[in-house]
Amino acid sequence: MSDQLHPPILELRNLHKQYGAARIINGAALQLREGEKLALIGPNGAGKSTLFNLISGAIAPSGGELLLRGREIGGMTPFQISRLGLARSFQITSIFPRLSVTDNLRTAVLAAHGYRYTFWRRLPGLGKVNDRIEELLQQCGLQKHAATLAGDLSYATQRALEIGITIAGGASLLLLDEPTAGMNRDEAAAATELIRRVSSGKTLLLIEHDMDVVFGLVDRIAVLVDGRIIACDTPAAIRANRAVQEAYLGMEAQQP
Ligand SMILES: Nc1ncnc2c1ncn2[C@@H]1O[C@H](COP(=O)(O)OP(=O)(O)OP(=O)(O)O)[C@@H](O)[C@H]1O
Q1: Using one digit for the tens of pLDDT, what is the confidence trace for 109-139?
Q2: Rounded to an integer, what distance in angstroms lies between the CA atom of residue 122 and that of residue 204?
Q3: Which residue ranges does the record assign to the ABC transporter domain (predicted)?
């Protein structure tokens, strides 16, 4: 089918973001197709988090276009963008530590439906909310922690809860910011498996430094250097790309 009938779910065209004279995002261009899994990699300070902030509406672009299913979203609020089916997780865990796992998920499910601070109110469709929480607990392997205070969970389990919170609203485009940061090898492998499960049938854009996670999870890799995407291709092609080796993987590529 033609690309005109199916525009990319997300498209960045000549995107710019500057703070004063500092050009942080400098003409970034990227297309993400429906159902695709894409990792955004790049050296520290390349602008990856800034790009996520732009896409999720935390900050507004200085120039260029940002299209979600063909619709300009540059300058929309995070809430408006999330209503269009985009959900984002954060590098720093953003759970409520003094609420149970179930209540964290409840908050996320309700927020996704536009409700806030409604624990004590009777809500229409409460049964459906509880069903959704049960589904999320299962999907994220959190059933045995359902009643545990989120602050008492291990770090890796907190990150699993974070993923549950991110997917709670049923978004079709997921942005995950370093979901395995700070994990050991086994935890990262389990998180990779969880991400694979919950992103099945969805579109995934993730920032990730762990190359085992990246190479095992995604269809394509986009490489951001100095606020520009210098290459976007399959993991094998990126691994073999000389410009990428020089700019980013250089140190690893030179090892025997
Ligand atoms: N609000 C801001 N004002 C000025 N400069 C900023 C602002 N936010 C980010 N920057 C700068 O933009 C650059 C890119 O930062 P960003 O956090 O997007 O990079 P990154 O690729 O995510 O890095 P890392 O891998 O270390 O997380 C950095 O030099 C940072 O100092």
Answers
A1: 988 776 654 555 555 567 788 899 999 999 9
A2: 35
A3: 10-251
What CATH number has the domain bearing residue 148? 3.40.50.300
Residues 102 and 74 in one domain: no
Residue 154 burial (C-beta neighbours within 10 Å; 0-12, 13-18, 19+): exposed
Could you report the per-residue pLDDT of 55-103, keeping only the tens digit for each?
A: 999 999 999 999 999 999 998 999 899 889 999 987 666 799 999 999 9
- The region, left, alpha or beta by phi > 0 then psi within -120 to 50, assigned to residue 121 is beta
Q: Ligand 1, from 41, 48, 175: best to mutate by most atoms within 8 Å of Cβ?
A: 48
> What token pair was written down for 119?
């624990």
Task: Tokens for 63, please give them.
Answer: 């120039």
Taking the centre of ligand 1 as the mean of its atom positions, its distance from the CA of residue 2, in whole angstroms, is: 37
48-57 tens-digit pLDDT: 999 999 999 9
Q: How far apart are CA 24 and CA 160, in angstroms?
A: 31
Q: Whose CA is nearest to atom 2 of ligand 1?
A: 19
**Which amino acid residue places its CA nearest to atom 13 of ligand 1?**
45
How far apart are alpha carbons 176 and 208 in whole angstroms? 8
In this structure, the residues whose C-beta lies within 6 A of any atom of ligand 1 are 19, 22, 24, 42, 44-50
Query: From CA 50, how far away is CA 208, in angstroms rounded?
Result: 14
Ligand 1 atom nearest to 227, measured from its CA: 14
In sequence order, what are the beta bridge partners of 40?
Answer: 207, 222
**pLDDT (tens digit, 9 = 90+) per residue, 235-251?**
999 988 988 888 765 54
* Domain coverage including residue 33: 1-84+205-256
Output the pLDDT for position 126: 72
What tokens were used for 106? 């409840």
